[in-house]
Amino acid sequence: MLKEPFTLKLSGHLFDNDNLLPSYVNLIHEFWKNGYKMVVVTGGGSLARRYIELGRRMNANEAMLDLLGISVSRLNAQLLAAALSDIAYITIPTNLDEVFRAWLTGKLVITGGFQPGQSTATVALLVSEFLGIKKMIDCANVDAVYTSDPRIDPNAKRLSKVSIAELKDMLKSKTVAGTYDLLDPWALGIAQRSGITIFVVGCNKPETLRRLMINGISEGTIITP
């Protein structure tokens, strides 16, 4: 399905699971060897949240807290690059220029956060925009986008497809936590202005990603520009 280049955003949740992460390493390696070209962007996970919480208790300012989270996301990226060292660009890019130079080598590019105030979802879409990539897969800690947080609201409705404009309206009206830890308005704006389609899939089952990649079967949410 996605034989053209795509961006793969991996939830930091994967790096909290010693059994799940190796499955994704194997899957990414398999995809790459079979001709799929991608850039991988990693989140920070519970380690980032722990450092941020500790920093906040000790009165670190918000920019400093963001830098802590960014550092952890880059550490996760370095771990993934080490595990995929035969195909990966080992130095972790810290900005778009470095991503571009790494991309030109033909190696698998893996990166984490860039700067304070940006989510790693925003980073993934900035990378997509900069490289002219039109599809982004968000392997998230939820299996789809909902009309509200299903972990809190039992009446939350699962969305199989939604436009960015509709999602933005939901966010404005605050009837949706639909992007809770998924996609912030800045990320959605980048996807909209550059015509990037986002596929949200749950990260807890690697086979969900495989079915999307190989068979074109979306079991999560398709967000259209």
From TrEMBL:
<dbReference type="GO" id="GO:0033862">
    <property type="term" value="F:UMP kinase activity"/>
</dbReference>
<keyword id="KW-0808">Transferase</keyword>
<keyword id="KW-0418">Kinase</keyword>
<keyword id="KW-0665">Pyrimidine biosynthesis</keyword>
<dbReference type="InterPro" id="IPR036393">
    <property type="entry name" value="AceGlu_kinase-like_sf"/>
</dbReference>
<keyword id="KW-0067">ATP-binding</keyword>
<dbReference type="GO" id="GO:0005524">
    <property type="term" value="F:ATP binding"/>
</dbReference>
<protein>
    <recommendedName>
        <fullName>UMP kinase</fullName>
        <ecNumber>2.7.4.22</ecNumber>
    </recommendedName>
</protein>
<dbReference type="InterPro" id="IPR011818">
    <property type="entry name" value="Uridylate_kinase_arch/spir"/>
</dbReference>
<feature type="domain" description="Aspartate/glutamate/uridylate kinase">
    <location>
        <begin position="8"/>
        <end position="201"/>
    </location>
</feature>
<dbReference type="InterPro" id="IPR001048">
    <property type="entry name" value="Asp/Glu/Uridylate_kinase"/>
</dbReference>
<keyword id="KW-0547">Nucleotide-binding</keyword>
<dbReference type="Pfam" id="PF00696">
    <property type="entry name" value="AA_kinase"/>
</dbReference>
<keyword id="KW-0963">Cytoplasm</keyword>
<comment type="pathway">
    <text>Pyrimidine metabolism; CTP biosynthesis via de novo pathway; UDP from UMP (UMPK route): step 1/1.</text>
</comment>
<dbReference type="GO" id="GO:0006225">
    <property type="term" value="P:UDP biosynthetic process"/>
</dbReference>
<comment type="similarity">
    <text>Belongs to the UMP kinase family.</text>
</comment>
